[in-house]
Amino acid sequence: MSQTSPNYDESKVPALILPDPFVSEKGSLIQTPEAWETIRRPEIFNLFESEVYGRIPKDFDSISFELAQETRNPFSEIAELEEVNIRVSRNGRSHTLRINLFLPKATKEKAPVILLVNYLPTYSDGKLVDEAFWPVPELIRRGLATASFHAETVAPDDATSYQEGIISTLYPEEIGKPDGLKAFGAWGWAAMRAMDYFEQHPKIDAQKSILVGHSRTGKTALWTSANDPRWAITYANESGCGGAALSKRKFGETVEAINTRFPHWFADNFRKYNGREEDLSLDQHLLPGLIAPRAVYYSSARGDQWADPKGEYLGLQLGARVASSIFGKNATFHSSFEELNGPVHLEGVGYHIREGKHDLTWEDWKIFLDFVGKTL
Ligand code: GTR
Fold it and tell me: Which ranges of 24-107 does DSSP label H, i.e. alpha helix?
């Protein structure tokens, strides 16, 4: 049966039957990092790739970086600005994407870097995105480098034109495949190219790279980090359905709702589960395990019921068991969602929930940066 109006009533949440992260498809018990890496993790990764997000192709022929100078640096007292054109070629065709990178002037050592995947305008007439959403000066003052790119420069956030970026230019064979490259994968691919730049940058400590996304780009950040082990910390703010939150709860945004409004985000296969979340052989609690033992951070807002804060917390509480049971981290969330009282910052996993509505705010950043300080 297809659901038309969203459910916000906890008593109507179905009983959850969730796949066990520690039992392989053939029924063996997974208890060691080796069994996790060689057996269970690939099984789970393949399921997410084919049934939820679609592929992120890893191959290309060449990549080059060129600095441009088109924008006034609004933080020139404390930061250098690099506007980088990243040109990637494959099969005789190329695509150029732009990242903007701020480097702290005061630090002599290599700086950790935070990449924000952004879907709001970053630069227009030299104006930066909202300073609460991307608090560049605050990050710089803490000795962090920070970069962003606009998702639309690799795949427009639009159901009819999303292929008019890297998908049609570099990876046209992905078009029409039920598990092919879609917009989230394309944005993630771009984050990986930004990482390629960080890795060869003399002023960046790429071992300490942090990937941040809000909402649709929070979903993207999680899938990117599952594909690319180079991110030390992955932060998904209010990523909700298809991100942090358990789909099978059908609370707030459902699989059908998201696939209908945003058919360009996920693999076409994901539509099979419209109104049929119970048929999914995975759920989002298996996603943090694909990132473990690298750090994962989630946050929610109480006024953001559409994203299902409780489902987001459960996704991490259950998912962090891979970090604790397999990798021996102190990563057990002892409180239930109802008992939460302040941020929970554990070893390699963290969570906070705040009052207010769906947004990435300075309050979120501040609490997350505490976690970063403890983790890096
Ligand atoms: C909403 C969508 C959410 C979330 C959000 C956002 O419209 O339903 O899944 O992605 O947009 O990105 O702000």
Answer: 33-35, 41-47
| pTM, two decimal places | 0.97
Query: Per-residue pLDDT tens for 22-60?
Result: 999 999 999 999 999 999 999 999 999 999 999 999 999
* H helix intervals, the chain: 33-35, 41-47, 136-141, 166-170, 183-199, 216-227, 255-261, 287-291, 309-319, 321, 362-375
What does R_g of the chain's alpha carbons equal in angstroms? 20
Hey, what domains does the chain have and what are their CATH numbers?
43-375 (3.40.50.1820)
Question: Whose Cα sits closest to atom 8 in ligand 1?
Answer: 258
Per the annotation, the verdict on 215 as an active-site residue is yes
Q: Is 376 exposed, middle or buried (0-12, 13-18, 19+ CB in 10 A)?
A: middle
Distance, CA 6 to ligand 1 centroid (Å)?
14
Among 150, 145, 147, 136, residue whose Cα is nearest residue 97: 150
Q: What is the pLDDT of residues 71-100, one digit of tens each?
A: 889 999 999 999 999 999 999 999 999 999
**Is residue 301 in contact with ligand 1, taking CB distance under 6 Å?**
no
